[in-house]
Design brief:
Largest sheet: 5 strands, mixed
Radius of gyration: 22 Å
Number of strands: 16
Shape: globular
Structural class: alpha/beta
Number of helices: 14
Helix content: 25-40%
Length: 397
């Protein structure tokens, strides 16, 4: 647990700030930030005011990129400052403060669909040694009939086509996921997976459990999310920063047991704080109301709190709260609350704790939209033979 929940701010005042190193050479900014595609998006949309959102590691390029965009697109450009929540989410709130009509989101992204503004994601084309990645894949999967789904961090998506050309002639059962920005059109077909902005079609008769997962990207929350969600699949990865491939050894069972312990804590709680961790992801208002109704039916009191980015100091101000539930994008939902005064759970974990119709099946959900009516999960529940208690009709799931 954190040693102190508050301070006089002296550490923040004395902290030395250093400008991050630019992610791309100055001569390569046009390619890295896809200036032509971005300018065409602005011109074709007829946008007069555009907000540019950069993560901290790319802010060193913000001034030059903004200048080039104004000249190329003929629009008024604003660079967003500190994001309201995680930088992976589109900050529609900050964009609306300047009356922006669209957002250009740069860098890593969770690909959560937005509520209001048109968005163009420009991930930044981080370099990938495709030859080295191919060699690592061959070493990890020497059997050429292996069934493998290839996933990647969004910043390496530009190189997946070349990697596919290298691997598919040798590995006929390898599937490459595709990025989908926003909700894909139409319902999913049988065997199709749509999660975290990734889409792929499973062809094996046994379904996804017959596949292994190969992730191209650095260790982090994205990989952890994937491993918990697709926990029936063994994972391996290639880290482009180190040039090394490895079999992932995250103890998924232990991680899930930790999350189930938090479910029990939520079941015992009398007062729950609902933390608003996003103001831009589509459906967040619906899930907030869903959680309030769920807690009311379970006989628990709830408070809705908008505190920005949660930290121990902020949440320690609410001593009457027994546990918090964070409504955020899938990538930021799994908050490590070991240093917090009270635990922080996800909407799915609260659902397990308070809804007698929801049982643990081994599947784990981090996207709160899977709890809402019309989701693929609800359609799956419609096929279950078990009857639901009258106090929790399916329309309330």
């Amino acid at each position: 647990m954190a040693a102190a929940f508050s301070s006089d701010g002296e550490a923040a005042l004395r902290r030395e700030l250093r400008a991050p190193v630019a992610a791309a050479p100055r001569s390569d900014l046009d390619r890295f930030y896809e200036m032509d595609r971005a300018a065409a998006f602005v011109r074709d949309g007829g946008f007069r005011k555009v907000a540019l959102q950069f993560p901290d590691e790319l802010l060193a390029d913000a001034v030059e990129v903004a200048g080039r965009m104004e000249a190329a697109a003929g629009a008024q450009v604003y660079v967003l400052g500190d994001t309201t929540y995680g930088s992976c989410c589109v900050d529609e709130v900050a964009a609306e403060h300047v009356g922006a009509e669209a957002v250009l989101h740069y860098g890593p992204a969770c690909l959560s669909p937005c509520r209001k503004l048109p968005v163009l994601h420009i991930f930044g084309q981080q370099p990938l040694d495709v030859g080295r990645c191919t060699a690592a894949f061959r070493e990890l999967y020497p059997e050429q009939q292996s069934c493998v789904v290839v996933l990647s961090d969004v910043v390496y998506a530009h190189a997946m086509g070349e990697l596919e050309q290298q691997l598919c002639p040798e590995y006929p059962n390898v599937i490459f996921s595709r990025l989908v920005c926003g909700d894909p059109p139409g319902p999913a077909v049988p065997g199709e997976e749509r999660k975290f902005g990734r889409q792929f079609l499973v062809k094996a008769a046994g379904g996804l459990q017959d596949y292994a997962m190969f992730y191209v990207g650095a260790e982090g929350l994205t990989l952890t999310n994937f491993m918990l969600t697709w926990n029936c699949c063994p994972f391996s990865s290639f880290n482009p920063l180190t040039g090394c491939g490895r079999r992932e050894t995250l103890n998924v069972n232990r991680a899930l047991m930790r999350r189930l312990y938090l479910v029990e804590r939520a079941r015992d709680a009398s007062v729950v704080g609902i933390l608003v961790g996003t103001l831009g992801v589509a459906g967040y208002l619906t899930v907030l109301q869903h959680l309030r109704d769920l807690l009311s039916r379970a006989g628990k009191r709830s408070y809705t709190l908008a505190v920005g980015k949660p930290n121990p100091a902020k949440l320690a101000n609410f001593l009457e709260v027994d546990i918090f539930v964070l409504v955020a994008c899938a990538q930021n939902s799994l908050l490590d609350s070991s240093d917090f005064y009270r635990p922080v759970v996800t909407p799915f974990e609260l659902e397990l704790a308070c809804n007698p119709a929801r049982e643990w099946t081994g599947n784990y959900l981090t996207d709160f939209r899977d709890l809402l009516p019309g989701s693929s999960l609800r359609q799956l529940l419609n096929t279950l033979p078990a009857a639901l208690p009258p106090s929790c009709p399916l329309t309330q799931l």
